[in-house]
Amino acid sequence: MEFLIITGMSGAGKSVALDFFEDMGYFCIDNLPPALIHKFAELCLHSELDKIAVVSDIRGREFFAALFSELSQLEKSGIKYEILFLEASDEALIRRYKETRRKHPLDEAGRILDAIHKERKLLEELRGKASMIIDTSKLSKKDLYNELQRIYSFHQIDKQAMSVSIISFGYKYGIPLDADIVFDVRFLPNPYYVNSLKDHTGQEEAVQEYIMKWPITEKFYTKLFDLIEFLLPEYRKEGKSHLMIAIGCTGGKHRSVTTAIKLKDFLLKKGYRVIVEHKDINK
Q1: Is 170 within 8 Å of 249 (Cβ atoms)?
Q2: What residue segments make up the domains of the chain, in order of their start?
Q3: At what angle do helices 112-128 and 90-100 cross, to 10 degrees?
Q4: For residues 65 and 131, which has the higher predicted lDDT (pLDDT)?
Q5: Which pLDDT value is given to residue 62?
Q6: pLDDT class for 154, splitting at 50, 70, 90?
């Protein structure tokens, strides 16, 4: 049985996520009180349901006292579960609440930002238990649906194996908030200062050859690949089925892109499922 708990910040897109999983054939329940999670999961075990997704969030009020106890009961009963955690920036959440004119569940004095900060603090520990974290700050509803489709359709191929997302980015544009691990490759020789390579990207062979020809690059890649190969099984033991690795350089066009591609090639040879995204390559 697949048992997925969808949670996260109010206004971050949990209803969109529930729609997606319903379309994927999951039996879905919105706003399930945390205190009922374990009993509901046990009922599902004795039914014909094999894929279940429930939304349980701060609307349950007495949220954490019950939820963490229920998660512990699931573990004691041998019921495997995953947590999908959706989050967004304060600015994005405020904008969405103003657009919809809905009230935040914790807003008692008309101060949306105070309610968001309170919720974020309450959810901090739960976020740490999440199997998957998605930052929806810059995603439309359609974008979020497509992102879920990209991740979970891919993820369904083999639930027992680890899948990896690698994202290259530029530090001048900000670190991806949903990254599990971040590597800074700004110390590598920079093709930006080579006139013939400046306007090209790390997807091109000439740029890759320039970056790869330096001894420091070879030494770094050897250590990087060894570390990642060690870490992935350890994350899997802790229940993570998907890991996002972010690799950054100054502009996100040369060194980070090349490194992301080389890491992808390495992990594919090791049998991992890998998705690569170049976040800032066209900026």
Answers
A1: yes
A2: 2-155, 163-278
A3: 130
A4: 131
A5: 62
A6: low
CA distances from 71 to 10, 28, 95, 116 (A): 21, 18, 33, 24
270: which 2 tokens? 């090791």
* Six token digits for residue 66: 């019950």
Burial (CB count <10 Å: 0-12, 13-18, 19+), residue 165: buried
Compute the CA torsion angle 256, 259, 260, 264 (nearest 10 deg): 180
Residue 213 pLDDT exceeds 80 = yes
Instruction: Report helix, strand or coil for 265.
Output: helix
User: Which among 178, 182, 161 is positioned nearest to 273, based on CA atoms?
Assistant: 161
pLDDT for 157 = 46
d(CA 75, CA 70): 9
Q: Greatest CA span in the chain, whole angstroms?
A: 66
Q: Kindly report, residue by residue over 173-188, the tens digit of the pLDDT.
A: 999 877 899 999 999 9
Rounded mean pLDDT of 57-78? Answer: 80
Dihedral angle, C-alpha 137, 138, 140, 144, nearest 10 °? -70
Whole-angstrom Cα distance, residue 276 to residue 154?
13
SS (H, E, C) 206-221: HHHHHHHCCHHHHHHH
Look at residue 163 and tell me whether its pLDDT is greater than 50: yes
- Here the tokens at position 161 are 């194996």
> Quick one: 33 exposed, middle or buried, by C-beta within 10 A (0-12, 13-18, 19+)?
middle
Reported as type and span, the H/E element at residue 67 is: helix 63-76
The band of 240, judged by pLDDT with boundaries at 50, 70 and 90, is confident
Superfamily the domain 2-155 falls into: P-loop containing nucleotide triphosphate hydrolases (3.40.50.300)
pLDDT score of 147? 84
